[in-house]
Structures are given as structure tokens and as C-alpha cells.
User: Fold these one by one.
Assistant:
Number 1:
Amino acid sequence: MNIGDRLNKELRTIADFPKPGIMFKDITPVLENPALCRDLVEALCDSASKLNIDAVVGIESRGFLFGLPLAMALNVPFITLRKKGKLPYKTVSYSYDLEYGSATIEMHQNTIQNNWNVLIHDDLLATGGTAKAAAELVKMEGGNIAGFSFLIGLDFLGGKEALRAYSTNIISIKEY
Ligand code: AMP
């Protein structure tokens, strides 16, 4: 079975969580399968290794789970991108609109060096709003967007189109 099918088999889909109409892709069963986790990191690493990555930026919180092992496999720094108020040192922030209200994400200052090729990683791509905000913050800090990587892409929600302006390198292990 290929890696996408193995991931699909372990994912649990929960209807109407956290609100009606959302088909939530629960990756916690995947985390209980160490051989699959190792192979997922290897597959992400294989796809990203052509991109000349200088750092991986992981999006809170599920983007940390595979983001750090991916950065370790690529032998580059891992940078955490968090919700407002979570990071203890000096931060840079970016605010963006949600369906209702807005959200702010933060990163520690001076973690990205000028012209670094940055890979943005999260567990899942839906509309692309979160990854797009991450890309804006990375650009504000002087980084280039080398690509995006996800375990899962919900392609019918149009996330790829939203991200294409930043980079056409959009990796997902399993697309729906
Ligand atoms: P978006 O900004 O619309 O691309 O949403 C992506 C973010 O929301 C990621 O951090 C995902 O973890 C989370 N997310 C959105 N939709 C789902 C879903 N159907 N299942 C699991 N996580 C989701």
C-alpha cells in the first residue's frame, strides 16, 4: 500500500466537529503507529529535499508533531509559529481575518535570516488561510517561501489556489 493510502487508513474522520458541517480529520490514531510516523516523515523529507530548505516553520499545534522531525531529517532549524501570547521572548505578529472575527499569529523575532528558504508545515490544508498568514509573517521577517508541506490536503476547499501566489511547491501526502 502506498503512503497516502496507509495514512488514509489510519485517519479518523469525525463528522460535525468542532462545528456542524466540518468533517474533522483526526490524526491521533496516526501518532499511535510509529512505523507509519517514520515513513510519513521520510516521505515529507523526500519531497522537500529538492527545495533547498534553510528552515521549517511549524504551525501550532498539530504542525509541530511532524514539523520538528521533518526539520531534523532535513537537518535545518525548526521554528514555532504560535497563537498570540504564547511565545515568551520578543515576537513579530501578523493578524488575519477569519470567517467570524480575526486571529493573530506570532513568531520569535530574528529567527529567520534574510533570504532563507523556508518550508511552512502544518498537518492539514483546508482553505489555506492559516498557511497564507504564516507565509506573510515569514516574508515580513525576510524569508522566501520555498514551499508548503501538509500530511492532508482537502483540495475541494481551494487551499492550493490560495497558496500558489507564494509558492507552487505544495506537498501533501494524501489529498481528498
Ligand atoms: P485553513 O486555514 O482553512 O487551511 O485551515 C487549516 C487549519 O485548520 C490547520 O491548522 C488544520 O489543523 C485545521 N483544520 C481545518 N479543517 C480541518 C479538518 N477538516 N480537520 C482537521 N483539521 C482541520
Note: Residues 83 and 105 are 5 Å apart (CA to CA).
Number 2:
Amino acid sequence: MTIRAVVKGVGHYLPARVVPNSEFESFLDTSDEWIKSRSGIERRHFAAEDETTSDLATNAAQNALKDAGIRIEDVDAIIVATSTADLTFPSAATMVQANLGMTKGFAFDVQAVCAGFVFALANANALIVSGQAKTALVIGAETFSRILNWEDRTTCVLFGDGAGALILQADDGEGTNADRGVLATDLNSDGRYRDILYVDGGVSTKTTGHLKMEGKEVFRHAVDKLAQTAHTSLDKLGLTGDDVDWIVPHQANIRIIKGTAKKMKVPMERVVVTVQDHGNTSAASIPLALSVGKANGQIKQGDLVVTEAIGGGLAWGSVVLRW
Ligand code: UT7
């Protein structure tokens, strides 16, 4: 018998305010046409002034709990992947814990920027298979609108706010690829590339800072590293792109998504794409896409799902799971 961390529920939350590309045309030298053709993004959601990352995360968590039919009393770990927590400390995860009325177990944040949800999922899986948690709430939540430079057309048109959440629970498996749950993970980072995507502020520099990105350089790394990490995870299971029902990629750019799917030899009909509606929501993008993919009937129980993401660090990784 093998312990597996199985998906029991999924949910998401998007702030009410929808911002179409055309809104940027009023204060920047940009166009809907440029944004759409270079990134695939058509609109994104921005949080209200008084809405924080833990608010978005809490709403997504409530939807995931409802979907799973699980009470908060049965959750023993909350992991929030975010780079935009409400406060320097405590973690956004402990705020979500309090919001949900959970008074036992433990909660912490994971910070691996756009790869954060993949890192959080791998951590939750490790906690469950090692017996340290039975039921984990894994959330990706961001308010990137707070760290954008509205005068920098090369970055501010690309990002959005949102949250997605998964409930993972320990189940007995047979130890084969037919088991439901997380089957393989692969995590990587290389700090030599920290200067191509970063925020130029933080606690020790006494500023909040703004997001800075050398988009072309990140793009160049993205397709290679994403295909490589997905193959590494699949190789661990003796599987290939042919076995994959759904790629649920980090949603940064439709050209990166297409390029990675091509390298993996998976047709776009088997890729969940939400970038047009959400923009790049960093650590929230994969759980948002999982939730939308399930809600619109794409992802079904038993499907083999590959998630892959890359972001600041650089940090990148993948998780293969059977839904
Ligand atoms: O989530 C973390 C991972 N992040 C990513 O994966 C993002 C990776 N990078 C990208 O998605 C793309 O590189 C971008 C979408 C950021 C940019 O696309 P690109 O095809 O690499 O464009 P570029 O940076 O080469 O810019 C092409 C031109 C430039 O003008 P010149 O130098 O050719 O005259 C830019 O100044 O487009 C210009 N440009 C814009 N024009 C209109 C840059 N931003 C804009 C804009 N509107 N918003």
C-alpha cells in the first residue's frame, strides 16, 4: 500500500474588477492588439483597494472546501504560495487559517514566485506521504497589481490578481501510475538568473518596490526549462506526452504555453488555457486554471494532469498527478 495525496476539491476566486487591454491605451503607449498578439492576454482582474491576498485566498479556499465536501475542522495544514502576502509577517496562510476558523494544525507560506504553486503542491505531497498531515489546503493567491509600475508598458499589462485552491487528502494507492493523486514532482532553481525577473524593493531595502523583468530573457529560458521539468517528472513514471490528458501550465504567455506543449508533443486541445481572461497571476495561475478546467468539464476524475511553471529566481518545476 502506498499513501497518495489525492485531489478532493478545487476552487477559485477572482476580484470583481475586470480590466480589458483597452484600459491601458488611455495612459500608456500600448494597444489591445500588441498585448493580445504578444502574450495572449485580453483582460485581467484587479483587487479592490481594501481587498488583500489573504481575502482572495480565503474565498478560493471556501470554494475548494465546498467542492470537496470537507469541513475546515478536517484540514490539518494550509500552505499559501504567494509573493504578495498582506504583511511582511505573519504569513498569509495564518490569516487564511484564522479567517476559516481553523484553530489546530499549521499554516505557512511558500515563496517561489510564479512557480510557487508547484513548490507548494510538492511540499503538501511530501507532508502527506510522510504522515505529517492527512488533509492539506494548498492555495496560490496574489495581488500583483500592488507591485506593478504603471509607467512600464513592458510589464504592467501582463499581470493580474486572483486565487485558486486545492484540497489534497491522504488515500491508499497501489503504488502504480493508475493511482489517483500526486505521482511525481520535480523542483529546480538557479539564482544566477535572479536579475531577469525581480522586485526592486523589500523589507531590508525599506521600500515595497516594483516588478522588473527582462521579458525576452525570461521567455528564452521558459520554454526549454518548462519542457525539461515536465519530461523529468514524466520520466520518473516511465510516461511521455502521449500519456498526458491535460497540461495545466503556468499562464504567463500563450506563446510560451504553445511552445512548451509542442516540445512535449501534446496538442493544444489537451492544454487548459486561461491566460486570455486572467493574465499572469503568478502563483495563482495554476490553481485558477485547474479550477476553471474542472468547472468547464475539461479535467475529469482519472485524468493524468501535468502542471509546470517558471518564475523569478529563476525557480521552476512540475507536478504530475492523476485527478
Ligand atoms: O511569470 C513569470 C514568467 N514570465 C514570463 O514568462 C514572461 C516572459 N516574456 C514574455 O512573455 C514576452 O517576452 C513579453 C510578452 C514580455 C514581450 O514579448 P516580446 O515578443 O518578447 O516583445 P519584446 O520585449 O521583444 O518587445 C518588442 C517591442 C519592443 O519595441 P522595439 O524595441 O522592437 O521597438 C518593445 O519596446 O514591443 C515593445 N513593447 C510594447 N509595445 C506596445 C513592449 N511592451 C509593449 C507594450 N505595448 N505593452
Note: The first strand starts at residue 2 and ends at 13.
